[in-house]
Amino acid sequence: MQLSDVTRESVVKAIAEYDKLGREEFLERNGFGEARDYFLVFGSRRYDSKAIVGVAYRHATGESRRSGDFTGGKNVAKRLRDLCFEVDEGTSQSAKS
């Protein structure tokens, strides 16, 4: 899996899917757990970064990815920042559905 395949457009599509399904169903349906360290911030909401990037990868390539396909949240956070998204590092607040 190449994180470079993930585009800003595919991330926005994943965010829309997350918002439609809600956090719990989005994570369960796509095989991800709750984020612990890195959260995508978009608008006034926080999203589980690995889950968003995993689903964004599917939107970009047509191939599904699960949590185990990632080597760590730091690389996911870097890709999101490269695409001009804000990433919050910290465990003080969870994402909200």
Automatic annotation (TrEMBL):
Domain ScoMcrA-like N-terminal head stretches: 4-89
Give one Pfam family, short name only: ScoMcrA_N
Q: What is this protein called?
A: ScoMcrA-like N-terminal head domain-containing protein
The source organism is Antrihabitans stalactiti
